Each structure stands twice: as C-alpha cells, then as structure tokens.
Amino acid sequence: MMVLVPSNVAPWLGGWPDRFLDRMEAAGSSVFVLGPYHGGGFSTGIDSAADLARLPPRYSGGIWTNEIAEIGPALKAARAVPSDPAKPRR
Description:
18% of the residues are buried. This protein has helices at residues 18-26, 49-53, 68-79; strands at 2-6, 30-34, 62-63. By secondary structure, it is α/β, with parallel strands linked by helices.
C-alpha cells in the first residue's frame, strides 16, 4: 500500500519521519511526501528546491514530484552532503 502525506501535515504524524516510516514499512506500506495541502482539490508535489528544503534532514521516504528535472539535481546535491555515520540512511 502507498501512503501519501502532505508535507505540511507530516510533522503531526507520531514519530515523523523516522519512526513513522519504520512503522509503515513494517505494515507493508511505502510513504511518499507530497507538497503542502491547503484544503480542497489536490495537493501539489515537492516541485521546487524550496519544497525539498522543507523536508526533515535525512528524510528517507519517497518523494512525489511533478518537476523531476528540478528536483532530481537538487536531491542529488542534498544527498552528496556527508552524513552522520551514527545514523544509517535507509
């Protein structure tokens, strides 16, 4: 099962992001973060570098985007930053 989570709602989920992602994985679900939801209609994707920067550091779930040409390079650059060896990346 796929769980879609708007970025502005995600911080209210218990254990966001790591424990929440672990619980969903244990239940057989994949989590994808969307852009912010403002009521009515649909949520956007993570469609800009600014949207991407609002995710928690080391977020390791899926990212839903409509602008892969912009997000792909920004995500690659963000992941090139040296990580904390005490906390393995998923």
